[in-house]
């Protein structure tokens, strides 16, 4: 079973999930699962298609926004923002190999919405993640969004 980490009231991040983890996500009220892991990244990962099928069977929406170790792009940030908007206030679970890329993408999306960079960093840290590698981008996106 994966370790779901609460980042804020809506967002949970996790290392790679399994088909069985989808049932736990359903119990927690998750209405959207975001896969941030590229297919074939490792031999032991559950294929996205299997997670997508389990999510559909559980009545949970699923979207793939793969992020490689090359970094993040604005289209990925935009897609993540859109996915969160569509989920409304309902819980969202995002996963990758360790949960780090999912949390960093969440941080960038929050910053692009104008959230306070210090609050973003604190929420990520409380969930066990460090946004240090992208802190400059978070600051820039937040400043742009705030006008």
Domain tally: 1
Sheet having the most strands: 5 strands, mixed
Sheet with the most strands: spatial strand order? 1-2-5-3-4
Number of strands: 5
Proportion of beta-strand residues: 5-15%
CATH architecture, by name, is Alpha-Beta Complex
Overall pLDDT level: 96
Top-tier CATH class: Alpha Beta
User: How many H/I helices?
Assistant: 6
CATH topology call: Protein-Tyrosine Phosphatase, Chain A
Instruction: Write the CATH homologous superfamily.
Output: Protein tyrosine phosphatase superfamily
Report the principal-axis shape. globular
Stretches where pLDDT is under 50 for at least 5 consecutive residues are none
Q: What is the N-to-C succession of helices and strands? A: EEHEHEHEHHH
Helix content: 40-55%
Distance between the termini: 43 Å
User: How would you classify the helix and strand content by structural class?
Assistant: alpha/beta
Question: If you compute it from the alpha carbons, what radius of gyration comes out, rounded to the nearest whole angstrom?
Answer: 14 Å
Pfam family, one: BLH_phosphatase
InterPro entries: BLH_phosphatase-like (IPR005939), Prot-tyrosine_phosphatase-like (IPR029021)
Domain Beta-lactamase hydrolase-like protein phosphatase-like: 4-112
């Amino acid at each position: 079973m994966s370790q779901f980490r609460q980042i804020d009231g809506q967002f949970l991040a996790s290392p790679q999930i399994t088909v069985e983890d989808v049932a736990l996500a359903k119990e927690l009220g998750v209405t959207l699962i975001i896969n941030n892991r590229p297919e074939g990244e490792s031999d032991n990962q559950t294929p996205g298609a299997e997670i997508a099928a389990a999510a559909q069977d559980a009545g949970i929406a699923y979207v793939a926004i793969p992020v490689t170790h090359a970094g993040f792009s604005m289209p990925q940030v935009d897609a993540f923002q859109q996915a969160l908007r569509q989920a409304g206030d309902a819980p969202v679970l995002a996963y990758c190999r360790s949960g780090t890329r999912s949390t960093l993408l969440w941080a960038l999306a929050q910053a692009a919405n104008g959230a306070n960079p210090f609050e973003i960093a604190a929420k990520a840290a409380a969930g066990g993640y460090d946004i240090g590698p992208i802190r400059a981008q978070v600051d820039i996106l937040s400043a742009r969004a705030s006008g």
